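Hi R.,

As promised on Friday, here is the backbone we talked about, encoded as structure tokens. Could you run it through your design pipeline when you get a chance and send me back a sequence?
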């Protein structure tokens, strides 16, 4: 199978699909181009259960600060739950499978009651009101989804912190958002053993903190410490709470959530998403890209701590009234057949995961898919990083029996939902290619120097040249950073346009392939990591004088973290193994296990220009084992390049 091969949509599938042909796709995109506001206005009127209708579609007067569906009133939790009660009250909203194989089915009516009770608890016991920030630091259990929706119901702004982040990282995010409440769990189960979250919260709240109350879901019943007056048991407080809670009337542009993500400089930024535009696109992309039907069961393996978990485990599926699977465990436990056993068991129809997971499942269990009945699968998705052709091929042939569409969905925390992706019933797909912008999304690859669209096979900057409803609305507390981070690099026709930070290329058919980040962000197992953050953590080691972190290709993770470290003492490293351990311990404390370095090398110096700028391009090339082709004569000390090459590549 060559990379050029094209796979047509399955005709049986296409017949039933919401967008069933390229003609249908082209017609939608043409409408959007010709009548942008008409296109989006109609979509919003059709999809959203408005409490009060909007008066304007798009307000660009203060671009890049834009407003969508101005004047409209809605509640996102009601959009996800209440409006389904007439037709779907007994349908499964969430099917939860625990690490130990325990299964719980939560109907839309159950969800309604559980979310309302949760919302009443937050209001009555903790005094949470509209606009308050609530940090959620939770394992993958149904209460995490209830917590999100309870916040949405009362107008509080949730900020989920991935459960793998350290106390220090959690503390930073709590402080930046000035959160009043933290919702957590004692812990959960991983590989049949309990693991803990509450102690991390305790450590994050030491010293001054804006947090007044902590709500603890007792999941694994392990012993934890309780601070009187601050910590409360969800399991106790939820008793007797009313299952009715009026949904707060929210403005289209009221914030729904914050989600911190890494940029190329500084600390992670609180990406802000607002209510109407976000939920509209979450729902539309669920319907178009996964084409979930009324009786289907859909499973996305992400964690709710990432944007994929927000949009495609909770908000998108529930907004469209689908059945979404939530999984607490590890996909390779007890063996690499676990996801396929789950597909068989729950008769899953759409399966959405990251290329890293596909590579690991392929490597650890190449023949596992054959052992299970995967015939219910219709659409397979990937997200988070470029997928390589061998992983794509295995996914397509072995998991999808060469009959399922693979949707390689390209997007990011800031875009809220998919941006470039095949449509399973319409788009002929090519391995490892995100294909075309979705209808309504005006995404173009531009030359940053001229702002012109690049030609075939020329790499350029992946930009979105018109505002779209689910776009980031701001960086929490830092309006200037929002403008600088996203609207500073590329101008089209003299107007700043949104730049994703990714490079991309068109092929002769106009298909888009993402080539990766153009900035100092690396993508480890589909998780975004700023090299500056990792460097800041390493610098906390008393003996580190200088450090530079770069990405390098990694067989399973996509990219691995490679650190060049210059120590303060000139005597060299007494015990390299111990030193590496000490540095990784600091990284775990400062960020979490996901940022642990794959390679740490101790160097006598770093390649710098005479003005002191570290030449990362050279460091990246050395880490990849590539030949250095650029001129190094202008470096402060050109000989350092050969020294580093020798240390790294022998
Ligand atoms: O570099 C792109 C890569 O992941 C980045 C976004 O990361 P994050 O905000 O954490 O969101 C991940 C889940 C949407 C992008 O800037 N990326 C995401 N999807 C793809 C991808 N790279 C290539 N192909 C994809 N399908």
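Update: got your reply. Pasting your designed sequence below so it's all in one thread:
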């Amino acid at each position: 199978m060559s990379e050029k091969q094209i796979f047509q949509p399955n005709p049986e599938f296409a017949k039933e699909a919401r967008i069933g042909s390229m003609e249908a796709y082209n017609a939608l995109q043409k409408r959007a181009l010709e009548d942008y506001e008409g296109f989006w206005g109609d979509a919003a009127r059709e999809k959203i259960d408005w409490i009060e209708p909007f008066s304007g579609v798009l307000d660009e007067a203060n671009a890049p600060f834009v407003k969508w569906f101005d004047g409209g009133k809605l509640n996102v939790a009601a959009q996800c739950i209440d409006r389904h009660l007439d037709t779907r009250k007994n349908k499964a909203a969430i099917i939860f499978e625990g690490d130990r194989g325990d299964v719980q089915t939560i109907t839309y009516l159950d969800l309604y009651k559980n979310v309302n009770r949760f919302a009443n608890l937050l209001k009555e016991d903790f005094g949470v009101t509209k606009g308050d920030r609530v940090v959620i630091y939770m394992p993958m259990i149904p209460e995490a989804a209830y917590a999100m929706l309870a916040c949405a119901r009362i107008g509080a702004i949730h900020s989920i912190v991935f459960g793998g982040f350290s106390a220090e990282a959690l503390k930073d995010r709590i402080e930046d958002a000035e959160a009043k409440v933290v919702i957590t769990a004692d812990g959960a189960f991983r590989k049949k053993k309990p693991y803990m979250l509450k102690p991390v919260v305790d450590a994050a709240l030491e010293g001054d903190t804006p947090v007044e109350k902590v709500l603890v879901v007792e999941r694994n019943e392990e012993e934890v410490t309780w601070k009187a007056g601050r910590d409360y048991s969800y399991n106790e407080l939820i008793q007797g709470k009313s299952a009715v809670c009026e949904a707060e009337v929210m403005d289209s542009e009221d914030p729904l959530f914050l989600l911190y993500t890494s940029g190329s400089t500084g600390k992670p930024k609180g990406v802000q998403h607002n209510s109407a535009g976000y939920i509209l696109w979450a729902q539309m992309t669920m319907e178009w890209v996964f084409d979930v039907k009324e009786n289907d069961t859909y499973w996305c393996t992400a964690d709710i701590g990432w944007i994929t978990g927000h949009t495609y485990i909770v908000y998108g599926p529930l907004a469209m009234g689908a059945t979404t699977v939530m999984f607490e465990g590890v996909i390779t436990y007890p063996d690499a057949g676990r996801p396929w056993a789950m597909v068989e068991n729950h008769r899953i129809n759409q399966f959405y995961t990251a290329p890293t997971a596909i590579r690991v499942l392929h490597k650890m269990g190449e023949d596992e898919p054959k052992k299970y009945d995967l015939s219910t699968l219709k659409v397979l998705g990937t997200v988070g990083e470029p997928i390589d052709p061998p992983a794509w091929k295995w996914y397509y042939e072995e998991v999808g029996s060469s009959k399922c569409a693979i949707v390689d969905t390209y997007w990011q925390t800031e875009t809220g939902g998919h941006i470039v992706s095949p449509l399973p019933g319409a788009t002929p797909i090519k391995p490892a290619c995100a294909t075309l912008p979705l209808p309504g999304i005006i995404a173009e690859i531009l030359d940053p120097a001229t702002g012109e669209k690049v030609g075939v096979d020329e790499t350029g900057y992946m930009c979105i040249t018109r505002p779209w409803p689910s776009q980031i609305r701001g960086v929490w507390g830092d309006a200037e950073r929002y403008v600088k981070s996203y609207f500073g690099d590329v101008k089209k026709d003299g107007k700043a346009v949104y730049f994703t930070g990714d490079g991309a290329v068109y092929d002769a058919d106009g298909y888009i392939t993402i080539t990766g980040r153009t900035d100092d962000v690396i993508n480890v197992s589909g998780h975004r990591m700023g090299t500056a953050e990792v460097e800041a953590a390493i610098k906390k080691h008393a003996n580190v004088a200088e450090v530079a972190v770069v990405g390098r290709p990694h067989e399973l993770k996509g990219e691995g973290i490679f650190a060049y470290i210059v120590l303060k003492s000139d005597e060299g490293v007494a015990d390299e193994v111990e030193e590496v351990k000490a540095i990784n311990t600091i990284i775990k404390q400062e960020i979490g296990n996901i940022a642990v370095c794959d390679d740490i090398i101790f160097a006598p110096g770093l390649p710098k220009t005479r003005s002191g700028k570290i030449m990362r391009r050279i460091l990246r090339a050395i880490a990849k084992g590539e030949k250095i082709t650029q001129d190094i004569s202008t470096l402060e000390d050109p000989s350092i390049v050969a020294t580093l090459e020798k240390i790294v590549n022998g």
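One thing I noticed while checking it: Residues 135 and 159 are 5 Å apart (CA to CA).

Thanks again,
M.
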